[in-house]
Amino acid sequence: MKGTTAHIVRTLLLSLITLFGVSVLIFLMLRVLPGDPARVLAGLDASAEQVDRLRAELGLDQPLLSQYWSFISGVLQGDLGTSARTSRPVSLEIVARMPATLTLAAVATLIGSVVGITAGVVAAVRRNSLVDHVISSVAVMGVSMPVYWLGLLLILLFAVTLGWLPAAGAEGPTSIVLPAATLGAFSTALVSRMTRASMLEVLGQDYIRTAQAKGAPARTVIVKHGLRNAFIPVLTVISLQFGALLGGAVLTETVFGWPGIGRLLVDSISARDFAVVQGLVLVYALLFVLLNVFVDVLYVVVDPRIRY
Amino acid sequence: MNWPTARGRTFAALVAAGLLLGACSFEQDPAASTGAGADSSFSIAIGIDLDTLDPAGQTTTTVQNVVDYMVEPLVKEQDGQIVGHLAESFQTSPDGLTIDLTLRQGVTFHDGTPFNAEAVVFNLQRITDPNLRVPLGAPFEVMQSVTTTGEHSVRIALKQPSPIFLKALTITPAGMISPASVQAEGNTYDSYQHPVGTGPYTFTTFTAGQSLTVTKFPGYWGQQPHYETVEFRIVPEAATRESLLLAGQVDMIILPPVSDLQALRNNPEVNVILGESDRTIYIAFDNVDPLLSNPQVRQALNYAVDKQAIVDNVLFGAAKVVDAPMSPALFGYCPTGSYGYDPERAKQLLAAAGAQGASLELFTPSGRYVQDQQASEAIAGYLREAGLTVKVTTSDWGAYLGRVNAPHSENTVDMHLLGWAPGYLDASVQMQMFRSATHPPTGLGTAFYTNPRVEELLAQADREIDQGAREQQYCDASKIIWEEAPWIFLWTQSFPVVHAAGVTGIATTPTEKFDALYARPAS
Fold first, then answer.
1. pLDDT tens digits, residue range A74-111?
2. Among the listed ranges A40-44, A71-75, A84-88, B518-522, which one has the minimum average pLDDT value?
3. What number is the average pLDDT over the span B240-250?
4. For A163, which of B51, B191, B247 is closest by C-beta distance?
């Protein structure tokens, strides 16, 4: 465990370099985007003087290096700046939207993991049976179906036709069902395919035959000997998928009017609200770093043979 | 905490009981406060997030529409006339340089502050404060001073006569907020997010990206609205808004998918209002380009496009083909002419100008206006039939503006599609697009069009106090512009609103706002 702690500390220190790189990259990427942010923010009707005033107010008339310096020195003091679009602090904007994104990502990942792993194990154990074919076909559909389309279909069925669930918004516990199911469909499909493939490989191993030969119950063989050994690649897929969802599932959030950070990011990019985009991308990078460390620890828990 | 088990249990039980009681009273509160109208909440699904609730910071019509529930202007526009609102009456001096306002008495802001002359002075000074960002503030810069002349009277002095100043006072940025409120409710002078006005509804809650709720203001000076609360729900996807309405989860939506307009009209559960709008959609030519500087070529492209067919088939009827360089809703409009679909004539004109087979780029936004990119594709199809080579390109809105707003020396756009909706119904706003003073990067006169006679007429109209003469000046300028065709004149967009058939009292204004303040159940 000592090695693991050292590994975590090393990873976190290295990630500081990553975060610094991310901050430089996003800063420069925004500045090479075409379109004058002052003009976009000031609106179509604004006069040239108004646009100039706004440019000065946002510091966009300063040299790049001093713009970057004021950005990064703010970040180091915990100040992500002020949104040009809403004149509210960026940190408040992000904090207001983060819980919705975290909840949706967590529930969708939970659905994806539970349903996906179960389906994957069943498909692997009953290889080439009808069940396997059905699960595999549904999984292919799930991976290839656009969330936009699936989301609208679910809304039509469960909100309009049956009237069981809210069509949009994030009010009340039932409102998460449709967006989480839509988002979870993709994860489910991905996880079940990965579980099936990984299980098939493990089930062909000698120790499985040994376990069966010594008369261990089928359940024990599949779950304890099989799934546990097949779990590492599955865990990787789940954590990658969760990481991707943390960035906000823009399309799902748009279809369901879900107030997450994905929509905030896209709105801010098209409004050229640099402070919000920079802040969001940094927070996102930080979350990804933390998630990676967490998964590293989980690997050790799942597979004690892993040493760092 | 290491309490003895029994005590711990008692404590837990007490906490639970307290929570339950709290939950009960919380559940009962709204019901108790609901007055006569039992089912007393109205919900509206809108498409865009509310960026700022500060009246002065407004840019977007829909956001202004929401702010209008809480904050009211001094004067309003009704059937083309300016009528008193928070200012009961107004008097312009014969030289047009001073305006005397007599304010309505007995009006209070939501926080109890009296609405009086001082409040008006505060607000008008705030929207002309160079340190505050007021995107739509240009028409107020003509103010020289604003002073109180009594508890309920105000005098505004202008630097020069401005025939549009009173109209400009109708827009949301000129709405009256309580002077005390810029330092209360978490507001500051330049970050104002909890509006306190005099309107029929007070601000209640706002969840970014999700919804805003307002509650009836019992002390409202005017007619009380029917619904106790109104909820604006932010739903960016048009098809989802439509589903919300069809599922009965909201009472009204704006901008449904236009392709579903017909189906919605046939549905007895909902009513469709296809509101008139002052938003003109056009394709601006680069009028300085060697090829497109020839008016014959520009006219040819106007004749080449069957606008009515595009309105019918691509916009599903949600637009009206224009017959002037502005919407009929504007003061100063007169029917100017028509470029009927005439492909033969287009070909002849192109041949006469030696422009057959020319190659042009048509730059279009995507998703900014109703069916914009689809319409551009259709227009390109017609232009190809006239023998031109046309390439349609698009980009995101920020980059789009950056490219069409570049100074001419760096400008590479042959033709681009834009929509323009004056915030108040006056030709002066529309006509900015045809003046050299607004050529990019200064403004959005992105056609780089100018004509000495037009400049002269528009400069006259800027200061003309006689509204009849002003109307004629705009009409004369329109005729020259129409003949010279700096744009492909397309259509004015409609503003569709759909509401449950069980409600009534809903209308739209030509400035693309919905008017549902006095919505009520249909009896």
1. 998 989 999 988 888 999 999 999 999 999 999 999 99
2. A40-44
3. 96
4. B247
Contact assessment for residue A75 and residue A98, using Cβ atoms and an 8 Å cutoff: no
CA distance B215 to B231: 9
Question: Which single residue is written with the structure tokens 């994905």?
Answer: A262
Three-class SS state of A293: helix
Helices (H), B185-278: 238-246, 261-266
- Per DSSP, A178 falls in state H
B361 membership: H or E segment, kind and range: strand B359-364
Helix, strand, coil percentages in chain B from 3-state DSSP, rounded to 5: 35, 25, 40
User: Is residue B404 packed enough to be buried (19+ CB in 10 Å), middle (13-18) or exposed (0-12)?
Assistant: buried
Max CA pair span of chain A:
85
Average pLDDT estimate for B189-193: 90
Predicted confidence (pLDDT) at residue B16 exceeds the cutoff of 70: no
CA of B424: how far to CAs of B61, B99, B481, in Å?
A: 11, 19, 22
Kindly indicate the confidence band of residue A215, based on its pLDDT and cuts at 50, 70 and 90.
confident
Are A154 and A258 in contact by the 8 Å Cβ rule? The answer is no
pLDDT band at B39 (very low <50, low <70, confident <90, very high): low
Q: Decide if B458 contacts B477 (C-beta within 8 A).
A: yes
Rounded Cα–Cα distance for residues B204 and B53 (Å): 12
Question: Is B398 in Cβ contact with A34 (below 8 Å)?
Answer: yes
Q: How far is A158 from chain B (nearest CA, A)?
A: 9
Query: What end-to-end distance do the CA atoms of chain B give, in Å?
Result: 61
Q: Per-residue confidence at B187, pLDDT binned at 50, 70, 90?
A: very high
Q: Are A201 and A209 in contact (CB under 8 A)?
A: no
Which has the closest alpha carbon to A266: A256, A285, A288, A281? A281
Residue A264 CA to residue A92 CA, distance in Å, equals 12
Q: Output phi, psi for B212, to 5 deg.
A: -135, 135
User: Is residue B231 within 8 Å of residue B220, measured between CB atoms?
Assistant: no
CA B374-B380-B386 angle, 5° bins: 150
Pairing between strand B270-275 and B252-254?
unpaired
A101, B328, B449 from B482: Cα distances, Å: 52, 14, 12
Cβ-based contacts of B57 with chain A (< 8 Å): 87
Residue (of B409, B296, B408) closest to B355 by Cα position? B296
The string of DSSP letters for B424-488 reads: SSBHHHHHGGGSGGGTTTTSS-TT----HHHHHHHHHHHH---HHHHHHHHHHHHHHHHHH-SEE
Mutate which: B53, B59, B187, vs A, most A CBs within 10 A = B59
Task: Select the residue of B45, B211, B236 nearest A254 (Cβ to Cβ).
Answer: B236
Is the backbone peptide bond immediately before B135 cis, with ω within 30 degrees of 0? Answer: no
- Give the per-residue pLDDT at A11: 83
- Three-state SS across A215-226? CCCHHHHHHHHH
